[in-house]
Amino acid sequence: MLSKMFSIYANEEPSVDQIAVAAENGIYVGKSERLSTPIFLDPSKAINPHIFAVGITGSGKSYLMKSMMLRMALIGELGILVVDFTGEYRELATLAFCTRANYENAHSAIARLPEGIVYMDLSNEPEGRKVEIATAALNEIVLKMRRFDANGHSRIFVFLDEAWKILKDNDVLETIIREGRKYGVGIVLASQMINDVEKDFLQNIGTIFVFRLQNSKNLDDLVSDYGIYTEQARDVQNFEQGRCMLIQLNKAKKRSCFVIAKIDGVRLDKTIKIGLGGECLDIEENEFYRAIGGLDIGSGNLADLRLDVDRKGSIVLSKLIATLLEMGADRREVLCKLRELGFRDFDIADAFAVVVSGSD
Fold first, then answer.
1. How far is the C-alpha of 85 from the C-alpha of 125, rounded, in Å?
2. Mode of pairing for the β-strands spanning 271-276 and 244-249
3. Which residues contact 285 (CB under 8 A, 6 or more apart)?
4. Residues sharing a CB contact under 8 Å with residue 67, sequence separation 6 or more, in sequence order
5. Could you tell me which residues are beta bridge partners of residue 244?
6. Contact 129, 137 (CB under 8 A)
7. What element of type H or E holds 69?
8. In the sheet where 156-160 sits, what is the strand order?
9. What residue ranges of the chain have pLDDT lower than 50?
10. Residue spans per domain, the chain
11. Structure pTM?
């Protein structure tokens, strides 16, 4: 009777002994939701080192990715290659231990791995050229990894954000996913949908971070493919920013699944606080202005809004909505952009109600 009224299911959070082992070689990602247990990610304990982060825009994927890049390079002492199709991670280029790479110097830059971070910014390249450069970089990784001893010890991680999808039919990416485990080379992917990744690829991914999802097919896949409880899958729809489910299959093929209350990461970029009643949602500055820039409000109005927000570092959601509507933005478009940024429907509805009522 109770299980019909509350989400009651087995607790799968790691034991004290498991935490101690993971902390030796793992990187800290946050605390578990139920017992506030510190969670350390050690990909070498999974059936393979590959990692997949999935969730809607604004749910916390990029924050997790940046945190993993920095902590793996500094704490885990792993080599990191970041192939950045959109310029999302260009702040990395300011770090002393980061080497910028392009098509011409890819060989020499990747040769220094597994030390530090090698960063490739492809955001200003034509689409076809992006594929060519990314493929060349991955080929360098394959040549390098085959010179490693086949002992499974983690050495290098390759980060490919959303745009990895244009490489998914690429043989070199498949080679790393299928053979990387033997040579200690892992791939870290991010996407908005679980089914963006082929089933064959998913079977070779040992660790999955599931942030907020809305697609019903994705939620059904969580239940059918990963054996999680229906109640757990239902909760994913209402995850707040930074909250996620961690699913991992270890080398003994035993699955663990539990919720991390909030990713406790590292930021290099500037964030904007959006007020939601008594709470705040942190939005990365570039992501915020990229979304707002897609509204038809004119460059002058966008510049004025940016000046006002940058001066304060924050804005209340209802005030943001009112300002955008006054600037001529379409009400429906504003709603869509706020959803893209990760705001929940009931927060948006409350803010619109404040705007309509004229109260502050």
1. 9
2. unpaired
3. 269, 270, 271, 272
4. 29, 263, 265, 266
5. 260
6. no
7. helix 61-74
8. 38-41, 27-32, 255-263, 244-249, 207-210, 51-54, 185-191, 156-160, 79-84, 117-121, 98-100
9. 360
10. 2-263, 271-357
11. 0.75
